[in-house]
Every structure is written in structure tokens, then in C-alpha cells.
Amino acid sequence: MKEKNNLEETYFLGKAQETRYTKSHIYKKVFGIAACVIAIIGITIVLMFKPQSVSQPHVLKTIAVLPEGGQMPIFNGNGDINDFLRWVMTNIQYPKGLEDKPARVVINFTVQKDGTLGLFKVLEAPKEKAYEQTVIELLKRSPHWKPARLSDGEEVNMEFTLPVVFTPEVRKK
């Protein structure tokens, strides 16, 4: 049913109601809600693209992958990683009493800025702790390294992961 008043049209469903919603009243409500939604979306977008402030500069302490233009660590003054692997294979010895057991130790270590190896982390090892202790002790005795360098010449720590496989020697009968 539609009733006409002096200023606007009023709409009813069913019997007459005490509260009348006019077109202008409905338009004002819809416009108010739409304005609020647009304001919320706008504020959200502004906050998403606002630059984040950094309280402290990020300091690169250790790298695992050398950026372009950088220099790898140098083993024993003039060698590369292959020279280091040969040194490990030449100097590794079986732990006492475990000479007949095959084993594999995977260790992560860092060539530090001072040229020493450190920050050892065993990633894989047999239950006999003597294997990982043997590998760590060997790496601690490593000859001096020249540390890795970034393209600007800054010395940085660099991580490596080394698998060491213990294989029993074939014994002659």
C-alpha cells in the first residue's frame, strides 16, 4: 500500500505501521553505510602501502650463498673447497673401537671472518657420538682460511655443509 504525504512517498507492507521509512531516510542510511565502507577500505589501502620504519639496520652476519661479485673463502691461503675436501679425506680417522662400522656424519659449519671454522651443527650422525666428535675435532684443526668477501670487500662469515662418510677398509686375509 502506498500513501502520499506532503513531502515524500511512504511505503508499507501489510497494515499501517507506526514507524515510517521514507525514500530519503533509506537513501541517507544506505549512503552513510556506503561512506563508512569506502572510508574503511581507503584507510586499509593507505596502511598497507605505508613504508615501514626500521629501527636498526639489518646486519649481514653469515651467508650461505655468495652474492654475485663476491669471493669464496680460500682454504689454507691459496686453496679452494676441493683442496679442503682432500685435506679432510687425508686427515680423518676412525674413532677407536669403531673401525669396522660404516657411518655417515653431515655437519654444518661456518668459515668465520677470522679465518677459523666454528659454529658446528651436526645435521646427521649415527648413535655413536664418537663419529661426530671426531669430525668436529678434525674441523677445529683445519688450516687457516681467508674469509669470504662481498663485492664491496667486506669480510663475512660463510656456512658450509659437509658430509663425511666413514667406510671400513677392506682387510686382506
TrEMBL record:
Family annotation (SUPFAM superfamilies): TolA/TonB C-terminal domain
Signal sequence region: none
Any one biological process term the GO annotation gives: transmembrane transport
Pfam families reported for this sequence: TonB_C (PF03544)
GO MF annotation terms: energy transducer activity
GO cellular component, one term: plasma membrane protein complex
PANTHER family, alphabetized: PROTEIN TONB, PROTEIN TONB-RELATED
Protein name: TonB family domain protein
Organismal lineage: Bacteria, Pseudomonadati, Bacteroidota, Bacteroidia, Bacteroidales
